[in-house]
C-alpha cells in the first residue's frame, strides 16, 4: 500500500512539473561532458584564438552557419577573451541539450497519452536522453568555441519538431509556420544535426500508417518543415561562398558510395567514442530484442513502423551529404549526428507500438544500462586523451618556439614564415590515444593549424608558406621520427621548415 502511494505521488509530480526532469538531464550531461569546462583546443579552436572573432565570424558566414557568425560578432563587439567565450559556449551547450531532452521527454509523454507507470516514465526519460545526448554528441564538445551554438541549434530544431507535431494535431498553420521559423534558426546552428527535427516528428506523429491519406499528409507537412529550412541553409551557404556546397553538377552515385563507406566505418569504429565494435554490437542486440518481441507478439505493425523510421533516419543522414561537393564529404559524428541515436529510435518503436516497459524483458534494460556505461567509459577515455593531446601540442609548440628564439637571438633575423613537411610515416595523432577525424588530432602535424597553435601557445606569429623541394630532399626525405627532435627543425632566413613525425 505504501509503495502504491509513493508511485501515485511520483506520477502526480511528473505530471505537474514536467520541466523538473531538466535538472536530472543537466546532472547526467555534466557527468558526460562536465570536464570540458576546462580550457581545451581542437585545430579549429586555435584558429579562433589566433586570428580573432572577426575572422571566425567570416568563416562561419561562408559556411551558412549564421548563428555562430552572430555569436562571434557579439564576442568581438564585447571584447570577450577566448577563455570566457569558451566557458559561455560550454554553459550554453550543457543547458541546451538538457532542455532539448526535457522537451523530447514531454513530447513522448504526450504522444503516449494515457496514464503512464513509473517504470514506463523511466523508459521515456532514458530514450529522451539517449536520443539527444547520443554517442556522437561528444564531438560537439570537442570544438570548444562552437559547442554552445551547435547545441542551441539542436534545441531549436527539437522545439521546431514540437511545433510541427502541434500543427499536425490541430491542423494549425500558425504552429506550422512557427515550426519552420524555429527550423531555419536551428539549422543555422549546424546542418549536421538538423535531421533531429524530422526524426522526432516522424517518431511522434500519430497514426501515420493508419491510412494513405494520413501517411501523405503527415509526410508532406513534416517533409516540408525539413526541406524549407534546408533550402534556406543551402542558399545561405551559396551567399557565403562555401566550397563545401555543391556549386556545379552533383555526382549523386559517387557521393552515395563515398558516404556509404564512411558510414559503415563509423558504425563499426564508433568514432573511437566507444571501444571498437561496441556501438555496432549494442545496435545489433537491441534489434534482436525488437525482432524477438515482434515474433512473440506477432506485431507486424511495429515492424513496418520501424522500417519506416529507418528509411527516414537514412534520408536524414544521407541528405546533407548528397548536396555536398564530393571532395568535401566528411563522414564524422557532427555531420551525421542522428546516426548516433539508432538505439533510442528502436526503443521508441517498441515503446509506442508494442507497449514495452521494464517488466517485459530482462535483457533489454541490462543492455541499455550496459550501453550507457560503455558510452560513459568511452567518453571519459577520449576526453582524457583529448587533454593529453592538448598537452603534447603545447610541449611541441614551445619546443619549436625555443628553437626560434635561439635562432633570432643568434642571427638577429625575425622568423615570420613556416613550411610544414611530413616524414615517411606521419601519424597526425599522439601515440596510444583515441581519435577520429579532427578529434584529438595532433595539431603540429596539421599544415594550416600548426602556425596558429604556435602563435597561441608560444607567441610567435608565423605565416604558412609553401614547401621547398630542395629543403625536403636535403633534410627530411626518407626520415621517420617517433617524437619531435631538433633535426626536424631547419630555419633558413626568415622561414622555419618543420617536418612532422
Keywords:
501 residues, mainly alpha, elongated
- Count the helices. How many? 19
Order of helices and strands: HHHHHHHHHHHHHHHHHEHEHEE
User: What is the CA-based Rg, rounded?
Assistant: 25 Å
Main sheet specs: 4 strands, mixed
Helix/strand-derived class? mainly alpha
Overall residue-averaged pLDDT value: 93
How much helix, percentage-wise, in residues?
Answer: 55-70%
Terminal CA distance: 69 Å
The number of strands is 4
Q: Tell me, what's the shape?
A: elongated
Spatial sequence of strands, sheet with the most strands: 2-1-4-3
Beta-strand residue percentage: under 5%
Unreliable sequence segments: none
Mind sketching the topology for me?
Layout: H1 2-16, H2 21-33, H3 43-51, H4 53-62, H5 66-78, H6 82-112, H7 118-132, H8 138-142, H9 147-170, H10 173-187, H11 195-204, H12 212-240, H13 252-269, H14 278-297, H15 300-322, H16 342-353, H17 363-411, E1 417-422, H18 449-458, E2 463-464, H19 469-476, E3 489-492, E4 495-500
Parallel strand pairs: 1-2, 1-4
Antiparallel strand pairs: 3-4
Structure description:
With 501 residues, this protein is mainly α. It is built from 19 helices and 4 strands. Strands 2-1-4-3 form a 4-stranded mixed beta sheet, with helices on both faces. Strand 1, helix 18 and strand 2 form a beta-alpha-beta unit. Helix 6 packs across helix 7 and helix 7 packs antiparallel against helix 16. The model has no long low-confidence stretch (mean pLDDT 93).
Brief synopsis:
With 501 residues, the protein is mainly α. It has 19 helices and four strands. Strand 1 (417-422), helix 18 (449-458) and strand 2 form a beta-alpha-beta unit.
Amino acid at each position: 500500500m505504501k509503495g502504491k502511494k509513493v508511485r501515485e505521488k511520483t506520477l502526480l509530480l511528473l505530471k505537474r512539473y514536467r520541466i523538473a526532469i531538466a535538472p536530472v538531464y543537466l546532472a547526467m550531461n555534466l557527468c558526460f561532458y562536465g570536464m570540458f569546462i576546462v580550457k581545451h583546443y581542437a585545430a579549429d579552436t586555435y584558429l579562433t584564438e589566433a586570428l580573432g572573432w572577426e575572422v571566425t565570424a567570416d568563416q562561419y558566414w561562408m559556411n551558412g552557419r549564421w548563428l555562430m557568425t552572430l555569436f562571434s560578432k557579439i564576442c568581438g563587439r564585447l571584447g570577450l577573451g577566448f577563455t570566457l567565450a569558451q566557458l559561455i559556449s560550454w554553459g550554453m551547450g550543457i543547458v541546451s541539450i538538457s532542455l532539448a531532452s526535457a522537451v523530447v521527454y514531454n513530447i513522448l509523454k504526450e504522444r503516449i497519452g494515457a496514464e503512464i507507470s513509473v517504470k514506463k516514465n523511466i523508459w521515456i526519460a532514458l530514450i529522451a536522453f539517449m536520443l539527444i545526448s547520443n554517442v556522437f554528441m561528444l564531438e560537439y564538445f570537442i570544438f570548444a568555441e562552437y559547442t554552445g551554438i551547435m547545441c542551441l541549434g539542436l534545441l531549436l530544431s527539437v522545439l521546431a519538431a514540437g511545433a510541427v507535431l502541434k500543427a499536425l494535431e490541430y491542423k494549425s498553420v500558425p504552429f506550422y509556420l512557427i515550426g519552420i521559423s524555429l527550423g531555419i534558426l536551428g539549422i543555422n546552428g549546424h546542418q549536421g544535426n538538423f535531421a533531429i527535427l524530422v526524426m522526432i516528428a516522424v517518431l511522434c506523429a500519430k497514426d501515420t500508417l493508419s491510412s494513405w491519406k494520413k501517411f501523405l499528409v503527415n509526410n508532406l507537412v513534416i517533409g516540408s518543415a525539413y526541406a524549407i529550412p534546408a533550402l534556406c541553409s543551402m542558399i545561405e551557404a551559396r551567399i557565403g561562398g562555401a566550397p563545401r556546397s555543391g556549386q556545379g553538377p552533383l555526382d549523386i552515385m559517387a557521393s552515395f558510395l563515398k558516404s556509404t563507406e564512411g558510414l559503415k566505418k563509423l558504425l563499426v569504429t564508433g568514432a573511437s567514442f566507444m571501444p571498437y565494435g561496441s556501438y555496432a554490437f549494442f545496435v545489433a542486440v537491441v534489434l534482436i530484442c525488437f525482432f524477438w518481441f515482434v515474433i512473440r507478439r506477432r506485431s507486424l505493425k511495429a515492424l513496418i513502423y520501424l522500417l519506416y523510421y529507418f528509411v527516414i533516419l537514412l534520408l536524414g543522414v544521407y541528405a546533407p551529404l548528397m548536396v555536398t561537393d564530393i571532395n568535401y564529404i566528411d563522414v564524422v559524428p557532427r555531420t551525421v549526428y542522428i546516426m548516433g541515436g539508432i538505439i533510442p529510435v528502436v526503443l521508441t518503436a517498441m515503446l509506442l507500438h508494442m507497449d514495452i516497459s521494464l517488466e517485459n524483458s530482462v535483457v533489454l534494460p541490462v543492455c541499455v544500462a550496459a550501453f550507457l556505461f560503455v558510452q560513459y567509459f568511452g567518453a571519459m577515455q577520449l576526453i582524457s586523451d583529448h587533454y593529453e593531446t592538448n598537452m603534447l601540442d603545447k610541449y611541441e609548440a614551445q619546443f619549436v618556439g625555443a628553437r626560434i628564439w635561439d635562432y633570432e637571438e643568434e642571427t638577429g633575423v625575425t622568423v615570420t614564415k613556416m613550411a610544414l613537411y611530413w616524414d615517411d610515416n606521419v601519424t597526425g595523432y599522439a601515440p596510444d590515444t583515441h581519435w577520429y577525424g579532427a578529434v584529438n588530432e595532433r595539431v603540429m602535424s596539421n599544415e594550416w593549424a600548426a602556425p596558429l597553435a604556435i602563435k597561441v601557445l608560444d607567441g610567435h606569429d608565423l605565416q604558412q608558406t609553401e614547401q621547398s623541394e630542395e629543403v625536403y630532399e636535403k633534410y627530411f626525405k626518407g626520415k621517420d621520427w617517433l617524437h619531435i627532435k631538433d633535426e626536424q627543425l631547419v630555419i633558413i632566413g626568415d622561414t622555419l621548415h618543420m617536418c612532422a613525425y
